[in-house]
């Protein structure tokens, strides 16, 4: 499995070599194969476009994909840390080297469009959009239904990737969901390079259309590895998109329910949740990447920033911890309490037993072999409970939430007495606890319109209430985009 992924990654990078010019939407996705050649070849040989799809998955773990040389620029998981810190559930409890401190935890980046973090997030997702558009165009466009099965599966993945990228752009670059607000340029064709911002509703229509088509096209797709998007993952992405609208809860319940009822992914057990979150083959993982030392990720990686058992920043003094108030809200008999180190001397509350290299030697893992997680089925249970509660089916919501909690605590019967806002608050709390450090807390904060208040183990803004739509929690359209795109001359509304 690992050797297979390594070989496919190298092949993908050979097929899909991206430039590092300042233009965020790189004009040529490959220096070896032109778009016309890809399109012509795809008619009879969809495998040539499969290289483009594999290249996109490689970009998701590649360093400097955001166009910087920063040690926080390493693809999707780098952006996940941004979100976890902005929403306050992840505390920078000690800062030795300065990563994340000023720009993210002190909110300087989201208030100044010249900061590199704005460009980093923007460029990363639009590179994925550009690459997905290349594949979509090769198969005949967004509405195509290719005759060849392999082509249908590849097109489905490309559509889902484009929607996934736009979803994160809507979350990171818009203060709140407002259908009429113009927030982002829409690029749905390989020829699109620069364009004006369009209304949120237009972006959401594209995402829903892409994902609905992807779910249909991916019917029957038996993926070779979990780094690929299959039908269940596409349903999960669609559930997140619809949930962020806050007005389609029946559809959210339907999509998440379909994943759960499909039975492909069991919930992680109490033993598995303290097992390191380091193996993509964990049955409860829906989407993730199987990493090997040959790929070459090391200090600059999610593990390098998060894991004390990896040779990098978390080991050397940049501590990422669970917010102390959130930790204190975890009951003493909850298996998830053991994920965190509660040192009575300093209470850094590091995730020493949630994320770790199996060797468990402090600073021991030099080249990354522990895997990246993007989505697991617990998210579907929690989203399903939230959607059922918000659509008026509180009994169903309680039962769904208890299915998860029965694997975490000895007695979940207290859930039976919850209703209304109390039930919603409990679902939100359990979402934050269950998914801590996995890049989903920021999404839940916006979806639930929460007000965040940092606990005492943060280095700044402790105890200050901050609403979900505060401008300090949202990135700005970067300076270089405004400078280079003649259709955009203002920042976020």
UniProtKB/TrEMBL annotation:
Residue span(s) of domain RagB/SusD: 338-449
Subcellular location(s) per record: Cell outer membrane
Matching PROSITE patterns: PROKAR_LIPOPROTEIN (PS51257)
UniProt name for this protein: RagB/SusD domain-containing protein
Keywords: Cell outer membrane, Membrane, Signal
The keyword Ligase appears for this protein: no
Cellular component, GO, one term: cell outer membrane
One Pfam family in the UniProt entry: SusD_RagB
Entry similarity comment: Belongs to the SusD family.
Domain of life: Bacteria
Origin organism lineage: Bacteria, Pseudomonadati, Bacteroidota, Flavobacteriia, Flavobacteriales
Main location as per UniProt: membrane
